Amino acid sequence: MTVHFPFDNTYARLGAVFHRRTVPTPVAAPHLVKLNRPLAEELGLDADVLDNPEGAEILAGNRLPLGAEPIAAAYAGHQFGNFVPQLGDGRAILLGEVVDRHGGRRDIQLKGAGPTAFSRSGDGRAALGPVLREYLVSEAMAALGIPTTRALAAVTTGEPVYRETPLPGAVLTRVASSHVRIGTFQFFAARGDDAAVARLADHVIERHYPEAAGAPNPYSALLEGVCARQATLVARWMQIGFVHGVMNTDNMSIAGETIDYGPCAFLDAYDPTTVFSSIDRNGRYAYGNQPGIANWNLVRLAECLLLHLDPDENKAIEVAQDVLAGFANVFNTAYVDGFRAKIGLQTPHTDDAALIGDLLGRMAEQKADFTVTFRSLGKAAESEQADETMRALFADPTAYDGWAARWRARLATEPREPGERRVAMDAVNPAIIPRNHFVEEALAAAMAGDLAPFERLNEALASPFEDRAQFADYAGLPPAPAAGYRTFCGT
Ligand code: AMP
Ligand code: MG
Q1: Active-site hit among 107, 250, 271, 369
Q2: How is the chain split into domains, by residue range?
């Protein structure tokens, strides 16, 4: 039986300037390490058929499914603030698009499928560790309810990749609602190709922002839509302690999904200056800088669209500034709404932002663990007996007491029953996140040939809001302060 992908490839049809036709380079020995069966079903693919040697050949790029039109997309980008006019898919090949069971269009891309016209000095390949890391973290994000690219499969290639040492090679099948980035617009704007910018904008409007098509100025409506989605996305990251780590403009999806799981990691102790990426020496992409950076990136997108916002340059700048000014509002509202729910409040009040800020300030000073603090707060909301658990999370327990008095006075103004409040809080404060030390442990075991820890962690992360006795270890505090934890770009 052959695997049927119901392809309908709109990006491939956009025109030659947008991509280069590129066939994946076959590998020695494709072996399926992990298949995401529920996602396969959602995409209208037969998981049973994918889960066999022919499926592994397709997912490794050795065999092209019928209807695939493999391409490497062109894009540019600001990397750590510096503009690079040509980046592009250097190791990722888009097989095509399918329309999923819910009618959503999804890209199917092989990451690590061999060199392309955009590989520069790279080998076009990926190592097993970063592939499994992206699998775990992107699927965890999806289970946490955060817009993200997905992982359909991981295969090993039977070939080494050479980094500092030889490592097992692998290919990740990434699924995204599209792979258009801010950097895609920059590629054409930097070349003065206005027609391509307009074509790309029209494609994105049709695909992601259909409501913008009917607006008086569709391109300003598009910019507004992207601002809103990215502002909301970054607010969600902040609410689960996620540090993306490499928010270059080529890593910011126009659709507003989290993309590019290279050096990302989660906070243990709450500290807004936290940086994990080994290459982020100035802390540009620190946890607390993420909203400002998203805004900076959106200014770069606005620059690309300027010519299309108004024929008069001054008016175009005004339009852009108006739209960009909306970012802060959307972000602040989403940020406060999310944290309000995390501390168990239902009805908005003008003092909420201050109450949230007070808690976070105390957590930062007292090195309270981000995830465990919020999860435990649900118990404290239900019963003051849990206050001892809360106090123990703060280096100086009285720092909690000072805030808790304020918080309880505020809770008393709300009608919700304590038990009901706890349930609502547990639904937004995860018990389990991909803790750095568990992720590292799972990857190390997988590299040594033991996939059991990866499978177990992946299973626990699929239900992050549930307290399950068999996964209690994942919900606990990290063993020792993980200060100095470093991540490396997923090359
Ligand atoms: P990233 O840091 O993963 O966002 O990648 C930045 C750029 O480097 C993109 O254009 C990637 O396609 C390219 N790149 C990263 N790793 C490799 C590799 N191993 N081979 C070729 N290109 C790569
Ligand atoms: Mg990237």
Answers
A1: 250
A2: 12-179, 180-431+475-491
